[in-house]
Write the C-alpha coordinates for this entry.
Amino acid sequence: MSTLVLELRQGDMMIVNGAPIRFRNRARIELTARARFLFGKQLMTPEMANSPARRIYFALQTAYIGDHDERRAGLELARELVRDFHEATTSDMVRDLLDRALKAAEADQCYQALKLARRVMRHEEVVLGLSPVSAVSAPEDVA
Protein backbone atom coordinates (compact mmCIF):
# COMPACT_ATOMS: atom_id res chain seq x y z
CA MET A 1 0.00 0.00 0.00
CA SER A 2 1.24 3.48 -0.76
CA THR A 3 1.37 6.12 1.93
CA LEU A 4 -1.57 8.51 2.21
CA VAL A 5 -0.71 12.02 3.40
CA LEU A 6 -3.44 14.11 5.03
CA GLU A 7 -3.25 17.73 6.09
CA LEU A 8 -5.58 18.68 8.91
CA ARG A 9 -6.32 22.02 10.51
CA GLN A 10 -6.58 22.91 14.16
CA GLY A 11 -9.90 21.64 15.49
CA ASP A 12 -10.41 19.10 12.69
CA MET A 13 -11.78 15.74 13.70
CA MET A 14 -10.79 12.37 12.32
CA ILE A 15 -11.88 8.85 13.15
CA VAL A 16 -9.35 6.10 12.55
CA ASN A 17 -10.36 2.49 13.14
CA GLY A 18 -13.20 3.67 15.38
CA ALA A 19 -11.13 6.03 17.51
CA PRO A 20 -12.02 9.75 17.36
CA ILE A 21 -9.05 12.10 17.11
CA ARG A 22 -9.31 15.90 17.39
CA PHE A 23 -6.32 17.93 16.19
CA ARG A 24 -5.17 20.65 18.57
CA ASN A 25 -2.86 22.20 15.98
CA ARG A 26 -2.41 22.05 12.26
CA ALA A 27 -0.98 18.65 11.39
CA ARG A 28 0.27 16.66 8.46
CA ILE A 29 -0.01 12.94 8.99
CA GLU A 30 0.82 9.88 6.94
CA LEU A 31 -1.20 6.70 7.03
CA THR A 32 1.20 3.92 6.12
CA ALA A 33 -1.11 0.97 6.71
CA ARG A 34 -4.69 0.14 5.79
CA ALA A 35 -7.10 1.95 8.08
CA ARG A 36 -10.80 2.74 8.24
CA PHE A 37 -10.98 6.50 8.44
CA LEU A 38 -13.11 9.54 7.77
CA PHE A 39 -12.30 13.09 8.64
CA GLY A 40 -13.65 16.58 8.76
CA LYS A 41 -16.64 17.16 6.53
CA GLN A 42 -17.03 13.46 5.72
CA LEU A 43 -18.31 12.79 9.25
CA MET A 44 -22.01 12.93 9.98
CA THR A 45 -23.23 13.34 13.55
CA PRO A 46 -26.37 11.52 14.74
CA GLU A 47 -28.17 14.89 14.91
CA MET A 48 -27.49 15.50 11.22
CA ALA A 49 -29.09 12.18 10.23
CA ASN A 50 -32.55 13.76 10.01
CA SER A 51 -33.86 12.41 6.70
CA PRO A 52 -34.13 8.92 5.18
CA ALA A 53 -31.05 9.24 2.94
CA ARG A 54 -29.01 10.86 5.72
CA ARG A 55 -29.92 8.01 8.07
CA ILE A 56 -28.65 5.56 5.43
CA TYR A 57 -25.38 7.52 5.17
CA PHE A 58 -25.03 7.51 8.96
CA ALA A 59 -25.69 3.75 9.15
CA LEU A 60 -23.11 3.11 6.41
CA GLN A 61 -20.68 5.43 8.18
CA THR A 62 -21.12 3.35 11.34
CA ALA A 63 -20.61 0.16 9.31
CA TYR A 64 -17.34 1.66 8.09
CA ILE A 65 -15.72 3.29 11.12
CA GLY A 66 -17.43 1.71 14.12
CA ASP A 67 -15.98 -1.06 16.27
CA HIS A 68 -16.73 -4.66 15.31
CA ASP A 69 -20.20 -4.77 16.92
CA GLU A 70 -21.12 -1.27 15.72
CA ARG A 71 -20.10 -2.16 12.17
CA ARG A 72 -22.36 -5.22 12.19
CA ALA A 73 -25.28 -3.23 13.62
CA GLY A 74 -24.68 -0.35 11.19
CA LEU A 75 -24.79 -2.69 8.21
CA GLU A 76 -27.99 -4.34 9.44
CA LEU A 77 -29.61 -0.93 10.00
CA ALA A 78 -28.49 0.17 6.52
CA ARG A 79 -30.19 -2.90 5.03
CA GLU A 80 -33.46 -2.01 6.78
CA LEU A 81 -33.27 1.67 5.82
CA VAL A 82 -32.47 0.85 2.18
CA ARG A 83 -35.43 -1.54 2.05
CA ASP A 84 -37.70 1.20 3.44
CA PHE A 85 -36.32 3.78 1.01
CA HIS A 86 -36.87 1.35 -1.88
CA GLU A 87 -40.55 1.14 -0.96
CA ALA A 88 -40.93 4.91 -0.66
CA THR A 89 -39.15 6.09 -3.82
CA THR A 90 -40.27 5.97 -7.43
CA SER A 91 -36.77 6.66 -8.76
CA ASP A 92 -35.04 3.74 -10.45
CA MET A 93 -31.78 5.69 -10.31
CA VAL A 94 -32.02 5.98 -6.51
CA ARG A 95 -32.90 2.30 -6.15
CA ASP A 96 -29.85 1.40 -8.23
CA LEU A 97 -27.57 3.69 -6.20
CA LEU A 98 -28.88 2.21 -2.95
CA ASP A 99 -28.44 -1.36 -4.21
CA ARG A 100 -24.88 -0.58 -5.27
CA ALA A 101 -24.14 1.13 -1.94
CA LEU A 102 -25.45 -1.81 0.05
CA LYS A 103 -23.56 -4.29 -2.12
CA ALA A 104 -20.35 -2.29 -1.62
CA ALA A 105 -20.87 -2.17 2.15
CA GLU A 106 -21.52 -5.91 2.29
CA ALA A 107 -18.25 -6.42 0.40
CA ASP A 108 -16.46 -4.30 3.05
CA GLN A 109 -16.07 -1.41 0.60
CA CYS A 110 -17.85 1.07 2.83
CA TYR A 111 -15.91 4.08 1.59
CA GLN A 112 -17.40 3.45 -1.87
CA ALA A 113 -20.81 2.88 -0.25
CA LEU A 114 -20.60 6.32 1.37
CA LYS A 115 -19.88 7.96 -1.99
CA LEU A 116 -23.01 6.37 -3.43
CA ALA A 117 -25.10 7.27 -0.37
CA ARG A 118 -23.97 10.88 -0.71
CA ARG A 119 -25.41 10.92 -4.25
CA VAL A 120 -28.74 9.69 -2.86
CA MET A 121 -28.59 12.44 -0.24
CA ARG A 122 -28.12 15.06 -2.96
CA HIS A 123 -31.08 13.65 -4.88
CA GLU A 124 -33.24 13.66 -1.75
CA GLU A 125 -32.30 17.27 -1.00
CA VAL A 126 -33.45 18.34 -4.46
CA VAL A 127 -36.67 16.30 -4.47
CA LEU A 128 -37.71 17.24 -0.94
CA GLY A 129 -36.37 20.79 -1.06
CA LEU A 130 -34.05 20.20 1.90
CA SER A 131 -31.09 22.37 2.72
CA PRO A 132 -27.87 20.56 1.91
CA VAL A 133 -25.96 19.14 4.84
CA SER A 134 -23.06 21.53 4.49
CA ALA A 135 -20.97 19.79 7.12
CA VAL A 136 -20.96 16.47 5.25
CA SER A 137 -19.02 16.24 2.04
CA ALA A 138 -18.76 13.13 -0.02
CA PRO A 139 -15.57 11.17 0.55
CA GLU A 140 -14.42 11.97 -3.00
CA ASP A 141 -15.00 15.69 -2.34
CA VAL A 142 -12.41 15.74 0.45
CA ALA A 143 -10.00 12.88 -0.04
In short: The two ends are 16 Å apart (CA to CA). The mean pLDDT is 88.
